[in-house]
Every structure is written in structure tokens, then in C-alpha cells.
Write a structure and sequence with these properties.
Layout (H helix, E strand, L loop, with lengths): L6 H37 L1 E3 L5 E3 L3 H28 L1 H9 L1 E3 L6 H14 L5 E5 L6 E4 L7 E5 H6 L2 H16 L2 H32 L9 H55 L2 H13 L9 H4 L15 H6 L6 H8 L3
Parallel strand pairs: 4-6
Antiparallel strand pairs: 1-2, 3-4, 5-6
Helix pairs in contact: 1-2, 1-7, 1-8, 2-7, 4-6, 6-8, 6-9, 7-8, 8-9, 9-12
């Protein structure tokens, strides 16, 4: 199986990924509508003939509220996305503690990257290094001015030239296939949803623990009004949290669908570029034994790594981890490479 014979599949994957990517703004808009719908449903109703309160949804009111909020939601998301999109390079570099790698510092890595770039006729990306004795690598960037390949010092020291060429070929393939642009876009949208969820959780926590304090003497009517207001606020925050959690879940599922498919394609491209699939398989085996960058603390950035450290969990949580991992099982990736 040769990478050049898989270009049709690459094109299909790109088309599918674009369709998946379009789901992110639809998810955000859908969650916004759901928020107003739930508020309307739990806030409206009538008492039936048995004296029971029956909730009722007024679709016209929901749509009106949604349309009023739409410009604010769209405007906020667009501004947030634009800022994050064009500052992603510095954000990722800061998150992993990377620094530029000069040719004088490590001509070996530069020579390997240059040879691979000439082989596939692509522009030379920037090269960054993370001072970490463990092993990992990743590609990032949205255009030729920001495309970057980052490696750890441990990776450069442990892997031989063929293995390092396989890893660098894998990362260059991510750039060639425009994976980094799509993955960074998904990172931004997931970040928007996760940030909103975190804010809602913090607001709920503050309201429950600090929101009830009042120094004035209250009457029984004041107490009743305060209780009603408190219950209403809890309902609003719970509904908001539920909607944000639902949106976050679907954005994660969409991101996983993009990531897993592209790792297999990058493995194939890396094997083709370095001309030695067994070398890349050997490199993955070494990296899986001591994956670096585990202390980054940014799950969204960690999905860029050639091997995600959390994907190595074994035991009872192994199956659950495989379902929600951004990367395919490393052993399976190695087995496929060894069949080339």
C-alpha cells in the first residue's frame, strides 16, 4: 500500500472532515436554541383539572428569544474564533514550552527535514524543540508562515536517523494534508464550549455557596421571594450547564472522528516519505514506551502529539479510553505499518 495510491482516500477524508467541521457552529446554535427552549418549557405551563401543573413549550417565544440572542452569540463566537485562530502558534508554543531549534544546534534534524521536504516538494516548516527527556512530536500551524514541527530532546537522542525520519515524515504529512489547520479549528471550537461550561460551573458554585448571604432583616414574604428567586436561578444555571455539557459532548465526538482517521493517513504518508515503514513502526514502539509532554495540562493541545499519553491507559479503563481517545491504538498502528 503506497501513499501515492491513497490520494483519493485523502481527498475523501478532507471532504468528510470539512463536513464534520461545519457541525461545530451548528452545534453552538443548536445548544443556544435548546437553552431557550428548556427555560421556556420549565417556566411556562398551566394547572390541569386535577390541580397538577403541566409544563408547556411556547415555540413562538422560544424562536423570538433565539433570534434576539443570535447576533450576540454569532458575534462572540466569530471574534473569539478569529483571535484564537491567529494566535494559535504562540498559544501552543507556550503550552508545551517549546523554543526554536537552530540549524547550528542540531544540523541532523534540519538535514532530515530538508531531505523529506525535497522528496515531497513542500516548503520547509519551522522546527521547534521541547526540552523533555521523554519522547514525542507534533505538527502545528494554519499556513506556510506558521507550519511548525516540534520534537522533544529525548526523541532526537533516542531515535536513529531512519526512525526520526519516519516520525518527521508523519508530521510533515499532517501539514501536507492540512490536518493541522482542521485540528486547530476543532481545538478552538471545543475550547469555546469547554470555557462556557467551566464558567457556568463556577457561577453555579458561587451561587450555591456565596449567593445566599444577606445582612438585612427579612420578612416571611421576603424569604418566600428569595427562595423563589434562588430556585429560579438554580434552574436557569442547571439548564445552561446541561446545554453546554451536551454541546461539549458532541464537539468531542466530532473532534475524535477527525483525529483518528487522520493519524492512519499520516502514518501511511510518513512511511512513504521515509521509505521505511518498519522504521516508523519501531519509532512508535519506542515512543509508546516513554511518551513525553504528559505534563502539558492541555488536552486540546495533547491531541496533536504523535502518541497521546492518555491513550496508553490499560486495565478496566482501557476500553473506555479507546472509545474517547483522539488517537487509534498504537499497537494497531504498528501492526498496519509492519504489513506494508
Amino acid at each position: 500500500m503506497r501513499y501515492v495510491g491513497m490520494m483519493t482516500q485523502v481527498r475523501r477524508n478532507n471532504q468528510l472532515s470539512i463536513l464534520l467541521l461545519l457541525m461545530f457552529p451548528l452545534i453552538i446554535l443548536g445548544v443556544t436554541w435548546l437553552f431557550f427552549a428548556l427555560l421556556n418549557y420549565f417556566g411556562n405551563g398551566y394547572y390541569n383539572q386535577y390541580g397538577e401543573f403541566v409544563n408547556q413549550l411556547n415555540a413562538d417565544d422560544v424562536n423570538a428569544a433565539f433570534l434576539n440572542a443570535l447576533p450576540w452569540v454569532v458575534g462572540t463566537v466569530v471574534v473569539w474564533f478569529v483571535i484564537a485562530y491567529f494566535t494559535n502558534t504562540s498559544m501552543i508554543r507556550h503550552a508545551v514550552g517549546a523554543r526554536p531549534l537552530s540549524r547550528q544546534e542540531n544540523p541532523r534534524v534540519y538535514n532530515i527535514v530538508e531531505n523529506l521536504c525535497m522528496t515531497c516538494n513542500m516548503d520547509m516548516p519551522k522546527i521547534n524543540v521541547v526540552d523533555d527527556p521523554q519522547l514525542n512530536a507534533f505538527a502545528s500551524g494554519i499556513d506556510k508562515n506558521s507550519y511548525t514541527v516540534t520534537v522533544t530532546t529525548g526523541l532526537m537522542e533516542i531515535l536513529d536517523d531512519d526512525e526520526l525520519a519516519g516520525v518527521l515524515g508523519h508530521e510533515l504529512t499532517h501539514i501536507r494534508n492540512r490536518d493541522t489547520r482542521l485540528l486547530i479549528t476543532s481545538i478552538i471550537f471545543v475550547g469555546i464550549i469547554s470555557t462556557i461550561t467551566s464558567l457556568i460551573i463556577q457561577m453555579m458554585y458561587n451561587m450555591m455557596w456565596f449567593g445566599g448571604g444577606s445582612t438585612r432583616v427579612s420578612t416571611s414574604d421576603d424569604d418566600e421571594d428569595g427562595k423563589s428567586s434562588g430556585v429560579a436561578m438554580i434552574v436557569v444555571m442547571f439548564v445552561a450547564f446541561l446545554c453546554a455539557a451536551i454541546g461539549y459532548f458532541f464537539t468531542l465526538i466530532t473532534r475524535f472522528a477527525i483525529s483518528r482517521r487522520r493519524e492512519y493517513m499520516a502514518d501511511a504518508g510518513g512511511a512513504e516519505l521515509c521509505g521505511n515503514p518498519l522504521a516508523l513502526a519501531s519509532a512508535l514502539r519506542k515512543i509508546s514506551g516513554d511518551p513525553g509532554l504528559q505534563n502539558v495540562g492541555r488536552e486540546d493541545v495533547a491531541q496533536l502529539f504523535i502518541i497521546h499519553p492518555s491513550s496508553l491507559h490499560q486495565g478496566m479503563m482501557g476500553f473506555a479510553s479507546s472509545l474517547f481517545s483522539t488517537h487509534p491504538d498504537t499497537k494497531k498502528r504498528i501492526e498496519i505499518l509492519e504489513q506494508f
